[in-house]
């Protein structure tokens, strides 16, 4: 055990985590020349296309220092805030963390929030100053920032360049010297933490775990504490670049387990695996539940695919534990799921993964949050409104309450004005302002959760040039003046485009939605009126003009009555067409509502 080191790499997005992981694998000889490629651990097509890490990736390396063999278990984590749950799970399985900071960009928002996550879990932090070879690098200034943040000595900050391979030997030495070896009791009953899992269509669920106490052997009868079910460990092994089966995984090590589980619901991330005959009395603590930020409906394009979508979502949830979903139905779209996401990027990625990995074409509705409505007949019993279409008639409502949150924003002092005006635009009330250093300010706001759902995070990043970290905690429900804005296409209401908005913003939002839909919905052979309404009152209208087929083209010369006869016939046909005509709404139209400020 004293030769095992478990560590993860944490950093803000684009500070060079995946490149550093590549260099560590090269240096320790864990990959052959044939297997080498940039961002080796980012094995999903989406990750390579977008240049971001979406999933945490675990891999084992062997390294010899001063004549002793060490086993290093590395977990490369995502940097984007929408995947911070991945980071929290990786941290739970480690004893140390490499905190990577870009020498040109210095400390950024996600650096700070990931650092706090690591400190809460008592991890040993090794600061690494990356990209020191860049012409724009400011190594001395950024080293001072790291020293202020961590309270360490300037000599402890390792200068490195992952691209050039500079400083890699120093990093590996620091990991072996500073990261504590795992402590656990090899004789105690088995106690292992499930920190990730993936669905393999041939072998069932592959579970990734870290052993805290005891050991796990091939063929052993094991038990999952959350579900209470027993299985046989058909195969256990270590996570090299390809999985390597082993007869036994000992205390402190990281590995994978295959039990032939075919039902994705039977494995939960954060669960404890133990021995079926001699179970551990305690589950492993410290795994927090995920807090979804954004709720949206996901529906299959063809309603017959509902069950297939359900099993695809369950398999995806195995690999992305921050996805939360419950079934719901819509008059316009049929049966689907109400899903909770950590942010807009997370929602986009889930939709893309469903299409690529499971071949499911889906429609995503406008994201929103849950409200409480109280009727005049029964003013004490709340009606839970998950969907704008659940809101009762305005005449029967005594009040509507919406969820409020306490938002904490850390930003540079240069951007305080911009951040404040954005939050006040979003109906926020400032409650506190603290200067953490002369450069960094912490702002606290009470804000409606609904205002954050759409584009708040993207706009916060824009006004603060990417330098703002955002965190929130719910503080209960408050009464608000909310109305439902319905969109009518060709006089038919489309419930998937309805939105609950504050009364003061309703007219503006209704007008912008109509304008946006006019751009996106393709023209038909007949006029399509687009209307926004509150109850029975129309607040805005746009018309998509008809495509006019030239029916008089075949008349050359001759009497005007011939042309008029053809035009009259066309007019009657258009009227009939409008009565039975169906308007197809493209997927961009559902998403357009989110980008009303663009």
Task: Write the topology of this structure.
Blueprint: E1 4-10, H1 17-27, H2 45-50, E2 57-65, E3 68-76, H3 84-92, E4 96-102, H4 109-120, E5 124-130, H5 139-150, E6 158-159, H6 168-178, E7 191-200, E8 204-213, E9 216-217, E10 221-224, E11 230-232, E12 235-239, E13 243-246, E14 248-249, E15 254-258, E16 272-275, E17 294-300, H7 306-319, E18 324-330, E19 334-341, H8 344-358, E20 362-364, E21 371-375, E22 383-385, E23 397-412, H9 416-425, E24 429-435, E25 440-448, H10 449-453, H11 456-463, E26 468-480, E27 482-489, E28 492-493, E29 499-502, H12 503-520, E30 528-534, E31 537-544, H13 560-580, H14 587-592
Helix pairs in contact: 7-8
Written account of the structure:
With 598 residues, this protein is α+β, with helices and mostly antiparallel strands. The protein has five domains: 175 residues, P-loop containing nucleotide triphosphate hydrolases (Rossmann fold, 3-Layer(aba) Sandwich), CATH 3.40.50.300; 85 residues, Translation factors (Elongation Factor Tu (Ef-tu), domain 3), CATH 2.40.30.10; 71 residues, Alpha-Beta Plaits (2-Layer Sandwich); 110 residues, Alpha-Beta Plaits, CATH 3.30.70.240; 112 residues, Elongation factor 4, C-terminal domain (Alpha-Beta Plaits, 2-Layer Sandwich), CATH 3.30.70.2570. 26% of the residues lie in helices and 33% in strands. The protein contains 14 helices and 31 strands. The protein has an eight-stranded antiparallel sheet with strand order 11-10-16-7-8-15-12-13. The protein has a six-stranded mixed sheet with strand order 2-3-1-4-5-6, with helices on both faces. Strands 21, 22, 23, 24, 25 and 26 form a six-stranded antiparallel sheet that branches. Helix 7 packs across helix 8. The radius of gyration is 28 Å and the shape is globular. The two termini are 55 Å apart.
